[in-house]
Structures are given as structure tokens and as C-alpha cells.
């Protein structure tokens, strides 16, 4: 950010870090939950969107465009409204929770539905951006990662140091890359990064990580290698079990994709006595239909 960069904010960041007492006792590790559902539009995307939209305004952007499985769409729509510019959201038909589309419509963004996958939606968004001279605000926009890395700063401040392990959902990989960037900038010992993906990426119950081809795969591989972490795949029944545990044992109602971070702990990466932070990326109201499917 520079002195000429406008401030576009809805009060994002400074989210709670909650000790998971029952999960910690059951698994034999010290578990903390970074509750990103407390951000203004209900997901971690707001951190990066605030910076990306501010820089787009500074550059004189005519509008914003993104491809999304939901959370980016809701965040882009809200921050575009805050900034007073148009947002266009391209999304794959049938792949986005209806509640996220409600957020987009409420904020006045334009929705473009296409047949195909997230990859197809992203290609269409890039074409639209070039044609209309709009700024792409997906995580390929470097300002997004600069905003999202602030969560790493917060965790170190809240804990008084880095955790032994950081577990988080792995969809496109931008958030893993952002946390890694943040911890590297802080310096000192890196937490082992546990990037947790769905076994069935194309049709997982965790719609927010329903991305077949991770855009940031190479950055994730580097982050995992340098931190001595791992990429693990979890089945939908494991995600559902972790989702129920978070709500019924810890009182945190998150969307299914968030629970992947907890489900991944059963696949190693954390030893007895380790201090682990699991990132809960989005609020449960992002996907209320999941209650019927999973509860």
C-alpha cells in the first residue's frame, strides 16, 4: 500500500483464535481455531479483497471481475459496492451454494453463469477482464495474498509465537501461499503447513474447495516442502465428521470446507503435544443446506 492508495474496508481482520478444549483433549494435541467466519462477508476472502479493491481503485479500474465457487464472489461484490464500482462474478452452474449467490445479488454485482468447472469460469473471467478492461480479483491478483497473509501475523501475535502446525483447507491454494508468505516475512521457525484437500475435488460436499486444478499448486508445493508439511486428501465423510464435531463439541458453525482443516489432522502432520492452528475459513451460513446433508 502507498500513500495514494484509498482505504476500502468493512472492518475485516482481527478475527478470534479460539482454544478447542474438547478436540484437544480427544486428539492429544493443543488445537486452536482461527475463526475467519467472523469477517464481514463471512469468510477469509475479505482480508485480501480489501487490499485488491483498494489497489484497483488506485489504478483507475473500471470494474472488477472474478470467477468463484462462492466466497470470492460474495467478498468481491461487497467490496465493490463499498468502493462504488461494478463487479462481475462468473461461476460454474450448480457448483455454488445458494446463500453465497444471495450475498452477491444483495450487493448488486452482475452474475454470469456458465456450464463447466471452476477452470472454465476462470478462463471466461480472464476473457471478460481483457475485453472490458476490468481488474481480476481472484487470488492470482498479488494484492489478494498480501491482504490474506495478515492472518499469519495475527496468529503469531495471539499465540505469542508461531504454532507447530497450521492446517487449512486446500482449494485453489491461494490461502496456503498467503500464510506461507506471512510466516516467512515474520521470520523464525516456520509452522509445518498441512494443506487439506478433498479426495473428490470435482464434486466434494465442501463446495468452497470444489476446484479441480489448483491455481497455486506450485506455491503450495514449495510451501509444504520448505515447512516440512504435507498435502493430505480427506474423504467427504471425514469432512462431515469434523464439521459435526466443530459445531457440537466447540460451538463453531462453519461451512464444510472449513472442517477439512480439522479432518486432516487424522492423517498425520501433528504429533502428541503439538500446538496446532486449524483455519476455519468460512461461516456455516455460507452453506446452510449442508445442515440437511450432513447433520
Describe the protein:
The chain is globular, with a radius of gyration of 18 Å. The protein has 2 domains: 17-44 and 143-294, Rossmann fold (3-Layer(aba) Sandwich), CATH 3.40.50.1100; 45-141, Rossmann fold, CATH 3.40.50. The longest helix has 15 residues, at 118-132. The chain starts with 16 loop residues before the first strand and ends with a helix. Helix 7 crosses helix 8 (174-186). The strands form 2 sheets. The protein has a 6-stranded mixed sheet with strand order 1-2-10-7-8-9, with helices on both faces. The chain is of the alpha/beta class. It is 43% helix and 17% strand. Helix 9 links the parallel strand 8 and strand 9 (230-234). The model has no long low-confidence stretch (mean pLDDT 94).
Q: Brief overview, please?
A:
The chain is an alpha/beta fold and 295 residues long.
Per CATH, the architecture of the largest domain is 3-Layer(aba) Sandwich
Strand portion: 15-25%
Q: How many helices?
A: 12
Q: What's the CATH first level of the largest domain?
A: Alpha Beta
Number of strands: 10
Briefly note the CATH topology name of the largest domain. Answer: Rossmann fold
Question: How is the biggest beta sheet arranged?
Answer: 6 strands, mixed
What is the total domain count?
2
Helix and strand sequence: EHEHEHEHEHEHHEHEHEHHEH
Q: Strands of the largest sheet, in order across it?
A: 1-2-10-7-8-9
Radius of gyration: 18 Å
How far do the termini sit from each other? 44 Å
Portion of residues within helices: 40-55%
Stretches where pLDDT is under 50 for at least 5 consecutive residues are none
Kindly state the mean pLDDT as a whole number?
A: 94
Shape from CA axes?
Answer: globular
Amino acid at each position: 500500500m502507498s500513500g495514494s492508495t484509498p482505504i476500502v474496508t468493512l472492518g475485516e481482520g482481527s478475527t478470534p483464535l479460539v482454544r478447542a478444549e474438547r478436540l484437544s483433549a480427544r486428539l492429544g494435541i493443543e488445537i486452536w481455531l482461527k475463526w475467519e467466519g467472523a469477517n464481514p462477508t463471512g469468510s477469509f476472502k475479505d482480508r485480501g479483497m480489501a487490499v485488491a479493491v483498494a489497489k484497483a481503485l488506485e489504478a483507475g479500474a473500471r470494474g472488477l471481475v472474478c470467477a468463484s465457487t462462492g466466497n470470492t464472489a460474495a467478498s468481491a461484490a461487497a467490496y465493490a459496492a463499498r468502493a462504488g464500482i461494478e463487479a462481475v462474478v462468473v461461476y460454474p452452474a450448480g457448483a455454488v451454494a445458494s446463500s453465497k449467490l444471495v450475498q452477491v445479488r444483495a450487493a448488486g454485482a452482475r452474475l454470469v453463469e456458465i456450464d463447466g468447472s471452476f477452470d472454465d469460469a476462470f478462463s471466461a473471467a480472464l476473457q471478460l477482464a481483457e475485453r472490458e478492461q476490468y481488474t481480476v480479483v481472484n487470488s492470482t491478483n498479488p494484492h489478494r495474498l498480501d491482504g490474506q497473509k495478515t492472518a499469519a501475523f495475527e496468529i503469531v501475535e495471539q499465540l505469542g509465537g508461531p504454532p507447530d502446525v497450521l492446517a487449512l483447507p486446500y482449494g485453489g491454494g491461494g490461502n496456503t501461499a498467503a500464510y506461507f508468505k506471512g510466516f516467512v516475512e515474520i521470520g523464525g521457525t516456520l509452522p509445518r503447513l498441512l494443506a487439506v484437500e478433498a479426495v473428490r475435488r470435482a464434486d466434494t460436499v465442501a463446495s468452497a474447495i470444489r476446484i479441480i486444478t489448483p491455481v497455486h499448486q506450485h506455491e503450495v508445493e514449495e510451501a509444504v516442502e520448505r515447512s516440512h508439511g504435507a498435502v493430505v486428501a480427506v474423504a467427504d465423510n471425514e469432512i462431515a465428521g469434523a464439521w459435526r464435531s466443530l459445531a457440537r463439541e466447540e460451538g463453531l458453525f462453519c461451512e464444510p470446507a472449513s472442517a477439512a482443516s480439522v479432518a486432516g489432522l487424522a492423517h498425520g502432520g501433528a504429533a502428541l503435544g503439538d500446538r496446532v492452528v486449524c483455519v476455519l475459513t468460512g461461516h456455516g451460513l455460507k452453506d446452510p443446506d449442508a445442515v440437511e446433508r450432513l447433520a
